[in-house]
């Protein structure tokens, strides 16, 4: 139940609330085919509660009734459940580390294949492209970036490459990692458009890290701030998918609050612990890893 402060009230009706919350998750999983079981309950509760406030539903049961009959609300909840916390050059110290990796790869590889996994609205893959264009030690023509996400609406925004600044989103500040971001972004008042030159290095596809097959042959995978929302039972299989997608000695960057599970630590060497930058162990093989996707 939502109290006057917008928080969940776990009082005398907590059992009924638990049942109502479970009913919502079951409906979303079975009828809307969104795998709620892959995410931790605290994340799901925050997203459902935000929709309850928007629709002025005071209990999970009331919201569940509304959800079943309102297709627009079903779409709104699915969009709310999609993880879309993102930004240009989030955590600049990490991006300084990524720049070092791209310099190294550009120097030794004819083509540098980069995967921005769970890229939301595309700001991360475009940051990668801008970084490549901005650094004279990186051959931007050699950089091929794939951005993937589970959300089609997010990918539509990504392909468009148009972003709106707001009271709570300071795009100019996000882009200040670069000395002169205007070389890569056209700014019209509060509208920021990614230039065609930056777009040319990036393509977008839908991909589900839990249920879809691994990619292959990537030199660098960036997957940041996804695993903190994922249920522990699925983190390992998602990281296995990423590890299988990397070339031997390829690099992985995860969120600063995230860690590699103990069962996969032998597959990676720590390059920079504070920045959560790892390198795939060239001697590790895929053969010994169980394929959890078949049980998803």
From TrEMBL:
Keyword Manganese listed? The answer is no
| InterPro entries (UniProt xref) | Bact_Chemotaxis_MeTrfase, CheR_C, CheR_MeTrfase, CheR_N, CheR_N_sf, SAM-dependent_MTases_sf
Where does the CheR-type methyltransferase domain start and stop, copy by copy?
Answer: 18-281
Report the protein name in the record. Answer: protein-glutamate O-methyltransferase
* Entry EC number(s): 2.1.1.80
GO MF annotation list: protein-glutamate O-methyltransferase activity
Q: Note one Pfam family from the annotation.
A: CheR
- PANTHER family assigned to the protein according to its UniProt record, in alphabetical order: CHEMOTAXIS PROTEIN METHYLTRANSFERASE, CHEMOTAXIS PROTEIN METHYLTRANSFERASE 2
Q: Which EC class is the enzyme in?
A: transferase
Question: Could you tell me the keywords of this UniProt record?
Answer: Methyltransferase, S-adenosyl-L-methionine, Transferase
Any GO BP: methylation
Catalysis: reaction(s)? L-glutamyl-[protein] + S-adenosyl-L-methionine = [protein]-L-glutamate 5-O-methyl ester + S-adenosyl-L-homocysteine
Q: Which Gene3D superfamilies match?
A: Chemotaxis receptor methyltransferase CheR, N-terminal domain (1.10.155.10), Vaccinia Virus protein VP39 (3.40.50.150)
